[in-house]
């Protein structure tokens, strides 16, 4: 046992927030509390919890999780759960490192030795997908994801959807699987049309075909299409997820370990989804600590489907990548067939380069989410 001595956080390029926890014996764990576009809010939550949890037993991960959840009165939501994720992941890393085992050994052991993965192409205004898909193929990926559309009006010309179909057909012609992210940009009148147009080209799944506040619409759409429906990055706890499972309108659940309360809650969501025959494809266009946390849980899930990797994603802008801030960059090498080896090192299985983190965290401005403005001056979904 060892009491928590320090909790620190580091704002890092391109849009990440790392958390470091150290106990009184000098054991260290790293977490990630990245919440794209809301860094300052998460930092404020962490400031309050740093003051509160110094002196708690670092091994008591579930007790600290329950303290955060149940003694705050107001609970849930992206800010709260992202801050909790940073602490939770760091505590799991600390405990497993102290014991000299990967985190998955503390979760019951692994059920697989490698993980199917996919990467992004196309950007926020998707184009040039053939060249980008071929680049991913050269990296051994067999599956990619791309945004379905640029910004759309609530009711737009059907012609705006044709390029989505063309891009999917282009990637499929290369022998690759492609997931299509509607990104919540597409409202119901257009989503029904787009799903129908995409179906003959058999996408791997369509993601966030509607915003998650529109549960009845998602249920209706799920009955309209044979394409698997994926969502979950904007669901922040098992309580958020439950209505979608009960409605039978999601085929692939995509909780984000950095937004849903960390490793502790991700594994609970996975177990709950298993009872509905729903696969997990954890959302993770974030940093190396969050990805490593996903991989630790993925290794233990019977219902794991595929893992998102932020390698070279357009949001990184060349300022940093998942190979940044860690010492062993080879852990992200994708093997033939589109697989990532389950890491065997202690804790998260990655070694954070603290000197690099501290150097790069100085005077970093918080990332601001982009937005779309329509031709009439109206705000559109990004």
Integer average pLDDT? 97
Number of helices: 12
H-E order: EEEHHHHEHEHEHEHEHEHEHEEHEE
Overall helicity: 25-40%
Radius of gyration: 20 Å
The CATH topology name of the largest domain reads TIM Barrel
Q: How many domains?
A: 2
Number of strands: 14
Distance between the termini: 46 Å
Q: Strand portion, in percent?
A: 5-15%
CATH top level of the largest domain is: Alpha Beta
Q: Shape, please?
A: globular
Instruction: Specify the structural class.
Output: alpha/beta
- Any low-confidence stretches, pLDDT <50, length ≥5? none
Biggest sheet, in brief?
9 strands, mixed
Query: Please, what is the CATH homologous superfamily of the largest domain?
Result: Enolase-like C-terminal domain
CATH architecture of the largest domain: Alpha-Beta Barrel
Q: Which tags fit this structure?
A:
single chain, 382 residues, alpha/beta, Enolase-like, domain 1, TIM Barrel, 9-stranded mixed sheet, 3-stranded antiparallel sheet, 12 helices, 14 strands, 35% helix
General description of the model:
The termini are far apart. This protein has two domains: 98 residues, 2-Layer Sandwich (Enolase-like, domain 1); 244 residues, Alpha-Beta Barrel (TIM Barrel), CATH 3.20.20. The relative contact order is 0.16. It is built from twelve helices and 14 strands. The longest helix is centred in the N-terminal third of the chain and has 22 residues. Strands 4, 5, 6, 7, 8, 9, 10, 11 and 12 form a nine-stranded mixed β-sheet that branches. A three-stranded antiparallel β-sheet has the order 1-2-3, with helices on both faces. Strands 13-14 form a two-stranded antiparallel sheet. The protein is of the alpha/beta class. The chain is globular. The model has no long low-confidence stretch (mean pLDDT 97). The protein is 35% helix and 15% strand. Helix 1 crosses helix 3 and helix 9 runs parallel beside helix 10. InterPro entries: DgoD-like, Enolase-like_C_sf, Enolase-like_N, Enolase_C-like, Galactonate_deHydtase, Mandel_Rmase/mucon_lact_enz_CS, Mandelate_racemase_C, Mandelate_racemase_N_dom. GO terms for molecular function: galactonate dehydratase activity; metal ion binding.
């Amino acid at each position: 046992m060892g009491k928590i001595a320090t909790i620190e956080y580091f704002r890092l390029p391109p849009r990440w927030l790392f958390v470091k926890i150290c106990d009184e014996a000098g054991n260290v764990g790293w977490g990630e509390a990245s919440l794209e576009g809301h860094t300052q809010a998460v930092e404020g939550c962490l400031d309050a919890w740093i003051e509160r949890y110094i002196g708690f037993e670092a091994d008591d991960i579930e007790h600290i999780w329950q303290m955060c959840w149940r003694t705050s009165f107001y609970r849930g939501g992206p800010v709260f759960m992202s801050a909790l994720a940073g602490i939770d992941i760091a505590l799991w890393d600390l405990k497993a490192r102290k014991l000299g085992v990967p985190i998955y050994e503390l979760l019951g052991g692994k059920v697989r030795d490698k993980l199917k993965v996919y990467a992004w192409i196309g950007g926020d205004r998707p184009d040039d997908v053939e060249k980008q898909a071929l680049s991913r193929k050269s990296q051994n990926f067999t599956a990619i994801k791309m945004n379905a559309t640029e910004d759309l009006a609530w009711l737009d010309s059907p012609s705006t959807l044709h390029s989505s179909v063309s891009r999917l057909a282009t990637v499929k012609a290369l022998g690759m699987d492609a997931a299509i992210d509607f990104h919540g940009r597409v409202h119901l009148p257009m989503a029904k049309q787009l799903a129908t147009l995409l179906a003959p080209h058999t996408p791997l799944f369509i993601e966030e075909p509607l915003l998650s506040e529109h549960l009845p619409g998602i249920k209706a759409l799920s009955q309209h299409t044979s394409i698997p429906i994926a969502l979950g990055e904007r669901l922040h706890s098992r309580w958020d997820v439950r209505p979608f499972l009960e409605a039978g309108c999601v085929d692939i659940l995509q909780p984000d370990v950095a937004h849903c309360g960390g490793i502790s809650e991700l594994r609970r969501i996975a177990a709950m989804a298993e009872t509905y025959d729903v696969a997990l494809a954890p959302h993770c266009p974030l940093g190396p600590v969050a990805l490593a946390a996903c991989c630790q849980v993925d290794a233990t899930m019977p219902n794991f489907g595929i893992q998102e990797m932020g390698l070279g994603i357009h949001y990184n802008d060349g300022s940093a990548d998942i190979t940044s801030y860690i010492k062993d960059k080879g852990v992200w090498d994708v093997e033939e067939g589109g697989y990532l080896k389950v890491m065997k090192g202690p804790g998260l299985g990655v070694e954070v380069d603290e000197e690099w983190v501290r150097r790069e965290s100085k005077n970093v401005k918080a990332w601001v989410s982009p937005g779309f403005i329509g031709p009439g001056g109206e705000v559109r979904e990004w």
